[in-house]
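Lay summary. Proteins are chains of building blocks that fold into shapes, and those shapes determine what they do. In this project we predict the shape from the chain. Here is one chain we studied, written as its sequence of building blocks.
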Amino acid sequence: MIIEKPWGREEILEKNDKYMLKKLTMFEGKRCSLQYHNIKTETIYVLFGQLLVWSGSDKNKLEPKTLRQFESITILPKVIHRMEAIKNCVYLEASTPEIDDVVRLEDDYKRI
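And here is the predicted shape, written in a compact code that computers can read:
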């Protein structure tokens, strides 16, 4: 299933009771919402492009990390984070299966 997003698109490759796997495309200069998950753990793995990942425990003091092809980061529950494409980027997100576990703190596209 492909879901169009204001920053690109998300394709759910697998969702079952143990894990979820998505392929995401994010366009250069776009970013997802500033968010955290209460339960969900996710690992981001860049297939190509460059992705800037902001993360931390305080939304005003987030640490940036640039991911390039074949690099990854794991984001644990309660960690505030946001992904931003430095260059057009395709990445995989492997996570626990809680698809609706998203708490948005800020959003460029006025989503709740």
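What the prediction tells us: The chain has a mean pLDDT of 97.
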